[in-house]
Structures are given as structure tokens and as C-alpha cells.
Design brief:
The protein has about 230 residues and is mainly α. Helix content is about 75%, strand content about 0%. It has 9 helices and no strands.
Length: about 230
């Protein structure tokens, strides 16, 4: 029976990599911020295109993609967890980034005072809607199914590790070590929780909505003008 494999996961990831590269070439005619948007669009489009191509050729293409009304409660859980992480990591962030700079490229682009409203809305949509769907399909869908024959602990740790590794590309390359210290540990912990939740529920809906809630709080904060946040602080 042709089911999902690690090779399929690599192909889906490469599809996103190629898609991002193609869209970035097109984006050279635009500003740096718009290039990031086009790169993200290409990444997600490429991954989905390869996923759909492979799924049509599987005897068992199911990755548990279903969302029920009860799953939307996981948005609140994601927001709550992100809030806890933000509070716990604030001293570290202030110490490593005393200038208030964001440790990740996308976050920095969203918080840019010169970024247009349309650009920020597109970033917001990508973070809260598109990224949770595409990344859960890849990591807690294809990859988790490919490793399902291994032990539960191995599946949780490995999917979280690879997911964290992919996020390295979004770090601030001017201060990579500081950016990694702030951004990667929470991503790894979230990845383990999402994998555990998917194994427990046997479908992706709860993980997608929890992932969306995790991104939601950060995206909303980044949409608030920096001057207003400074006044509140």
C-alpha cells in the first residue's frame, strides 16, 4: 500500500523551497517587505501543490485533515500559551534585544512603522490562517504519518525537532545566536504539544487551531503601532 513516507515530506518541503525561490525572483522588483510576502506565498503554494500531487497517488492519502466546531476552543489555548511564553521570556528578550528589535524577520517586517496597512494585513493572514494549515499538513500530517510506525515519543520529538530547524531560516541573521535563544525553544515546545495533540485526537483540526491561536497574539501585538506600545509600557 502506498502511504506517506519521509521522502514525501522532503518533497513537500522542497516544493515550498522552490516555490519561495521562484516568487522571490519575481519579488526582486518590489521592496524588501513585499519580497518577504511573495516568498511566503511561494513557499506555501509550492508545498500545497506538491502535497496535492502526491496525495492523488496514494492508496491511503488521509492525513487527518478535518476541523470540527469544537476545535475552535483550541485557539484560546494557543493564545494563552503564547501569552505565558511572552511573559516568561520577556527578561531574556529585553536583555538580548535592548533596542526593541524583533528577533525574527517576519515579525520585524510586520512591526515596521513604514509598512503599509495592506502589507500588515497580508502578514497577519499568513501567520494566523495560511501558515497553521500548511505547516500542520506537512509536519503533523505527512511527517507524523510517515513516522507513525516508530514510538510515540520518537514521533513527537522528531517532528518538533525538524519543525524547529525549518524556523531557523526566519531568524535575525544579524544576531543569529540571540535570535535563536529567544525564538527556537518556544517553537520546539509548541511542536511537541502539537504532535502530542494530533496523536491524541487522530486528526489535524485541534493542532491547526491551536497553532493559529499561538500566532494570533503575536500577530495582533505586531499590528499595534510601536509608539502606542511604548506609551502603554
Amino acid at each position: 500500500m502506498r502511504s506517506w513516507s519521509v521522502v514525501d515530506f522532503v518533497l513537500v518541503w522542497l516544493g515550498g523551497f522552490v516555490g519561495a525561490g521562484v516568487f522571490l525572483v519575481v519579488g526582486e522588483a518590489f521592496s524588501n517587505e513585499w519580497s518577504i510576502v511573495l516568498g511566503l506565498a511561494g513557499q506555501y503554494a509550492g508545498s500545497i501543490a506538491v502535497f496535492l500531487y502526491l496525495a492523488r497517488r496514494k492508496d491511503d492519502s488521509d492525513v487527518g485533515f478535518s476541523i470540527e466546531a469544537s476545535d475552535f476552543s483550541y485557539i484560546a489555548l494557543g493564545v494563552f500559551l503564547q501569552l505565558l511564553v511572552a511573559i516568561a521570556s520577556r527578561p531574556l528578550v529585553q536583555n538580548l534585544f535592548p533596542d526593541g528589535q524583533q528577533p525574527q524577520q517576519i515579525a520585524r517586517a510586520m512591526s515596521d512603522v513604514d509598512a503599509s496597512t495592506l502589507l500588515k494585513i497580508m502578514f497577519f493572514s499568513a501567520a494566523v490562517v495560511v501558515a497553521p494549515v500548511v505547516e500542520e499538513l506537512m509536519f503533523r500530517g505527512v511527517l507524523l504519518r510517515a513516522l507513525a510506525h516508530r514510538g510515540r515519543a520518537f514521533v513527537i520529538v522528531m517532528t518538533a525537532t525538524l519543525w524547529t530547524a525549518v524556523h531557523i531560516t526566519g531568524l535575525d541573521m544579524e544576531r543569529p545566536m540571540a535570535s535563536a535563544a529567544v525564538a527556537l525553544p518556544p517553537v520546539f515546545l509548541l511542536g511537541m504539544m502539537l504532535a502530542w495533540l494530533t496523536l491524541r485526537k487522530k486528526r489535524l483540526g485541534p493542532a491547526i487551531l491551536m497553532h493559529s491561536g499561538w500566532n494570533l497574539l503575536a500577530a495582533v501585538v505586531l499590528l499595534i503601532p510601536r509608539e502606542l506600545l511604548e506609551n502603554v509600557g
